[in-house]
Every structure is written in C-alpha cells, then in structure tokens.
C-alpha cells in the first residue's frame, strides 16, 4: 500500500494529491494507492492512518508513504511504528509549536468543512513526536528553501542523515513536485 497523507487543512484533492494519483495510475497501476481525507482531530487522524497500516500489513502488503507538511510528520511516526519507507515533502517537524496560531475556527477549502482547532489537538501531536530518526535509510525528504509556512532548516536538521533533495526557492506546496515523482517512485521501489 502507498499511503498519501495530506497536510493541515488540505485534502487528497489538493494539487499534489491529484498529481500523485495520476502518476501512480499511469506508471504504477498495480500499486494500491490510498488517499484518505483525514479527520481534523489529530488523534482521530492518526487512528485512521494506523488502522489503514494494520489492514495493509494483515493482507501482507508492504507499506510506503508520501507525506506533505503535517502529513510528513504523521508519516515519520508511521514508518517508525509500522516499517516501510516514506517520502516527506516540506514536512512539519514540530507542528505543535505552530498550532497556537490556528486555535479556533478553521475552514477546509477542499472539503468545505468548518471546524475548531482545540488545545487538545495541539497536545495530541506531542504523542506522535520522534526525538530522533532511528532508520534514516527509510526516508527521502524534499525541501524547498522558499517554504513560506515552515522553516526548511528545521527539517534539514531533523532529517540531516536521510536522503534529501534541497532546492532553492519554491514554496510550501513544493513547486515542481510532479517532476520529482519518478525519483519518488524509485526510492519507494514502486512496482
């Protein structure tokens, strides 16, 4: 199973989600691509992702992940817990430090959902934090220095021992993401 994990206030219907689905459909049609719409509650999101991983492992499937932003934070935890390999795109390193600015009402532009970010959502993220990357060979990290949402240097520090592509400029969406999909497929060893 290839699990695509979107970021905060995003969706599988984001540009990266759609480009990923199209690429997998065209170039790796036998891959089981799963792109869930994550619940806004962080514990519920991780419970869903864990359940998907356990179902795939029960079927004898190998695990691969593509995680963007907050999805990269989740993917890091999942790789350490369940195994597999992950590609992280401008990953959030310590999202609980950022959640203060998002407390209160939110609107997801992809789903139309209105919801509240509560202090407990922020606190729950601490449960999924990894102090260090135990298996750096399992990660390929894509960073752009122009990320206007996250400081790329945080990810550069945390994932310094992992395979990495660092590009100058760009933005949080990772400009030119589609051009990286063949390298992503090779790293994940997609059939």
Characteristic key phrases:
about 190 residues; alpha/beta; Rossmann fold; two-stranded antiparallel sheet; 6 helices; Esterase YqiA; AB_hydrolase_fold
Question: What does this molecule look like?
Answer:
- The chain is α/β, with parallel strands linked by helices and 191 residues long.
- The protein has a single domain, classed as Rossmann fold, CATH 3.40.50.
- 36% of the residues lie in helices and 18% in strands.
- The chain contains 6 helices and 8 strands.
- The strands form 2 sheets. Strands 2-1-3-4-7-8 form a 6-stranded parallel beta sheet, with helices on both faces.
- It is globular and about 45 Å long.
Strand % is: 15-25%
Structural domains: how many? 1
Number of helical segments with 4 or more residues: 6
Q: Can you identify the CATH superfamily?
A: Alpha/Beta hydrolase fold, catalytic domain
Question: Low-confidence spans: pLDDT under 50, at least 5 residues?
Answer: none
Question: Order of helices and strands, N to C?
Answer: EHEHEHEEEHEHEH
Structural class: alpha/beta
Largest β-sheet summary: 6 strands, parallel
Spatial ordering of strands, largest sheet: 2-1-3-4-7-8
CATH architecture: 3-Layer(aba) Sandwich
Give the tally of β-strands: 8
The proportion of residues forming helix, as a percent range, comes to: 25-40%
The averaged pLDDT comes out at 96
Q: How far apart are the termini? A: 11 Å
Output the CATH class name: Alpha Beta
Shape: globular
